[in-house]
Amino acid sequence: MPVIPVIDLKQGQVVHAVRGQREHYQPVAAMSRLCRSSELRAVIEAFLTLHPFKYMYIADLDAITGSGGHAELLARVLPEYPVEFWLDQGLCLSRTPRIVCDYYKTVLGTESQQFAPAPALSNFILSLDYNGPEALGRADWFSDSRYWPRQVIAMNLSRVGGGGPDWELLRRLKVEHTDRELIAAGGVRDDADLRRLENLGVWGVLAATGLHTGSIQSGVGLFL
User: Fold this and answer.
1) Do the Cβ atoms of 78 and 115 come closer than 8 Å?
2) Calpha distance 121→146 (Å, rounded)
3) Considering Cα of 159, then 164, then 166, then 168, what sign does the dihedral take?
4) Which residue range(s) make up the domain with 97?
5) Which residues pair with 127 in a beta bridge?
6) What is 142-194 written as a DSSP string?
């Protein structure tokens, strides 16, 4: 079960995400025991000193919210590292019929989808976005799984920052979609959460706060 570090980019810096309240996110170095800088390279390298992670997830919050983006920075930095980056830039499936890039894999979040689910010409990762019990995005992206890709993230923004995984959501998705590789996102706190998620049968886990504070540092090597 891979642990996948999360990087949230806002206005040129990596920020600490808490409960989906994006307007209040602050530079991550202010709370991190892992890195002293909030610059993208510094955070990637700090994660790699903790473990040679195979995957990292990046949310370009400015692109997702329609207030800019970090395309040039990402194109300059990401190819330098032997990591498969998963990148959410707020793209809409209908506008990205062929989703191929040499240095990252595209994540499509339901909160950014403007049209009904449809076949894609290339592979992507789907993020089912929630804020508490509320599903973010068109209802048909949650009810119609015919065009879901193999890998699906269950993202509950209200739990981001250490609120604990959304166990009810994860159990339901595991039962209803046994043919998908489910990735838990939002709230993982410590090694005990990792063990419980592994026992639940999720494929992978997105984590940020626990890695920066060290609360799941001791268990990282056990879940790769």
Assistant:
1) no
2) 14
3) negative
4) 3-222
5) 109, 153
6) HH--TT--SEEEEEEGGGTTTS---HHHHHHHHHH-TTSEEEEES---SHHHH
Burial class of residue 100 in the structure, from the number of CB atoms within 10 Å of its CB (0-12 exposed, 13-18 middle, 19+ buried): exposed
Give the pLDDT confidence of 29-62 residue by residue, as tens digits.
Answer: 999 999 999 999 999 999 999 999 999 999 999 9
92 in helix, strand or coil?
Answer: coil
CB 224 within 8 A of CB 44: no
Residue 56's SS3 state is: strand
Question: How many Cα atoms sit within 13 Å of 74 on the Cβ side?
Answer: 29
152 close to 123: Cβ distance less than 8 angstroms: no
Q: Name the CA dihedral angle for 217, 43, 12, 103, rounded to a multiple of 10 degrees.
A: -110
pLDDT in tens, 104-157: 999 999 999 999 998 887 789 999 999 999 999 999 999 999 999 999 999 999
Contacts of residue 30, defined as CB under 8 A and 6 or more positions apart, other chains included, come to: 16, 38
CATH number of the domain encompassing residue 17: 3.20.20.70
Structurally, the chain folds into a number of domains equal to: 1
